[in-house]
Amino acid sequence: MDLFRKKSVDQLVSESTPLKRTMHTFDLTMLGIGAIIGTGIFVLTGKGALTAGPALSVSFLLAAICCGFAGLCYAEFASMAPVSGSAYSYAYLAFGELIAFIIGWDLILEYALQAATVSAGWSGYFNKLLEGFGLHLPVELTAAYGTTPGVTTYFNLPGFVIVLLITWVLSIGINQTKRTNDIMVMIKLIIIVLFIVCTVWFVNPANWHPFSPYGIYTFQPGSTQPYGIVPAASIVFFSFIGFDAVSSSAEETVNPNKTLPKGILLSLAISTVLYIVMTFIMTGVVPYKEFANFIDAPVAGVILATGLNWLAVIVNLGALIGMTTVMLVQLYGQSRICYAMSRDGLFPEFFGHVHEKYRTPFKGTWFFGILTAIAGGFININVLFELVNIGTLSAFIIVSAGILWMRKTQPDAHRGFKAPLVPFTPIISIVFCFILIAGLNWETWVRFAIWFGLGLIVYFGYSRKRSKLEHTNAPEVTDDYVEAAEAGTTK
Description:
It holds the Pfam family AA_permease_2. The protein is an all-alpha fold. The chain has one domain: Amino acid/polyamine transporter I (Up-down Bundle), CATH 1.20.1740. Helix content is about 65%, strand content about 0%.
């Protein structure tokens, strides 16, 4: 038994796919921006400002640099092996099956938790939009149980419904998905630019002093939560998660060797500029300590401070659209990861089933869509969002290390794009990832270790025996075949 058996580049590329190739550079860039710009601007800037002060813009830049170096590594892998699966497939190529499975298992949790977490924020903005029109949902149906202190809530109905609607769009075809995403991202960008143009005139430079009240990293008396630029970067790193999902669209992309690297890097660059400009303006309009008064809706609080009440309705709409695209891309990426793992035999065949008409992994899309909707509807998972960060950072480390290994072991493999300044680029990526991981609290490490342990149980209990690589020269590996093999009745 070889736990580290690998796929070759030829094996990955030659695997036939029934998925439909329709994505171009513009679509991939919109997909990346759709995943990146959302919760970061409309929700996390509040907590980030309280953690770093006006230096939040530096925290965003630090997180962006980490993602930028990792993005260069993703771009090289995507051009070398343009297949579904993102970091899972790249780990299979560089380090073998066990590492690939763990990363795939990690990404499934990442995408599901982020989509469920964002659905809670989406629900909050949706309820505020309804209130603007004099409409009110029963308070018990506005959030999961225990989400709002002092208020009795049981079920996040708006979040549950939006996740199911997104799942339906994803299940009926990639053309419908990309058109929906492209339109929503363009509207979102227009609203963000409108916010910048309207609020920049209210900036008071005195609010930027002191610029970095907590320095690089510090603990406040009586607090277990670290403060400063690095801890804030660890928090807002959540904002950039999603560009890696772009690489999972490889088998639905036209000319992926060239378009995937462009889509990944363009979406990161555009999003970083917008984040930095937004945080400069927000902390310039409102003193950073006042974000405690509207930590869950920081953009709305900034608008309230300017007196531009008419802008609030428009920005609420932008927040809804922004978070919708984030959920769409995360659920899309999750279904493609599961599709790739199922095709390799590491997950049940159910998740690899492709609908004849829609040419999407239909069953797997609905399975995880329903689970995510239920999680966001009933469970207070806001305390778990940092698990998304540590999971993504772990995937970035594996992909960056994979570039170092592949350059050494397969220097002549075809690469449509080469990350510059190797080995420095992947090494810097790894260092930045470890710095951001260090900014997370110890509870996150414990939860991640538990999920990691569950993944090992699934691999050794199910996936190892059903791996297609384990049975490369054997009959097709179905559940019936594995049962027969265990009984010693195969021929």
